[in-house]
Amino acid sequence: MDLQAVFDLLRKYQAYALIAFVVAVLSTPIAANLARRLGVMDIPDRELKPHARPTPYLGGAAICLGWTIALIAAMAQGIVAWPQLLPIMLGGLAFSIIGLIDDVWEMPPKLRLSLGAVITTTVMLSTGIGLRLAASFLHPLHIVLPEWLEIILSFLMGLFIVLGACNSTNLIDGLDGLAAGVTAVISLGFLVLATHLAIVEWARPGNPVRLVLALAMLGAVLGFLPMNFNPARIFMGDAGSVLLGYNCGVMLLLFNERGIPRWLLGGLMVFALPIFDTALAIIRRWRSGRSIFAGDRSHFYDQLVDRGLSVRTVVLISYLLAAFFAIVGCVTIWLRLRYALVFYIIVTAATVAVVVKTGMDRPERSPASPPSD
Question: How much is the pTM?
């Protein structure tokens, strides 16, 4: 990759990361004060909320504000066409508002999921993103389906990716600074992929959208992170975590713009840590005989804390893990798909082996249950 071309490209787009960062830095303390006045506080308990003192929510509103203003600036300056980015921005605002309502009044999970599906459907149909997903994987296998069936399959795959990403970032928001820092690392990985695509395929319409979304997400979470790092003075809540997941999910769909699976697979590997944590939690809950939607301490970061590591240590380890997966995902820039797939399979198998070896996959034992032999 031509480094001069990279620097020139980043200079053209860097303002949107800076806008998101400044807005988030300035609005985060305002959001914290407003949350205290309104009583929108996260009250600690002895299990799922072990923080030391009541902590204000509404940090997600600051993230959303920084992200939104950066996107509006990009559209106003003509960097991205309004029809391309406006539906995505409105979808993110809608997800954040739903998360905010859930932070304050607690929305039924089924209603949240249904509204999220409606929003995602609207964004996909209005922009056309994600509607070539099935073809990307079927055509290399010489499987040809009727066009209407490919579109339906693509739509279902895209819906699963976006809603799954929202759920994964929501679940990983369990320690001070964890979700924000991990998402910052993921956004850097997405930025590397988007930058490469923009340099080698500049004429593609999705390039400006990808670059602006990656930089806006990066700037917003970095502006929020100083007040969220341990000991946190504010939490992002669902208003922030689902927005970040939505942004990641949309980015993944955008990586499939050309109908070539290598970029989507690379993006999924960049996003691997939230995927891994969600899969681990689901497996442990299932093996424990609990609902997969029930809150518990099945997450990998909870297990590390329960094994004696400090919150800061666990968060820093998570940042390193996120960086590792991001680097692996960006290998697609230099490797052919067949070799990248082998690399991904090896990394995935090694991750599973570490999980099994350390016992992280074992079902959570009830406090009343006797220890197993």
Answer: 0.92
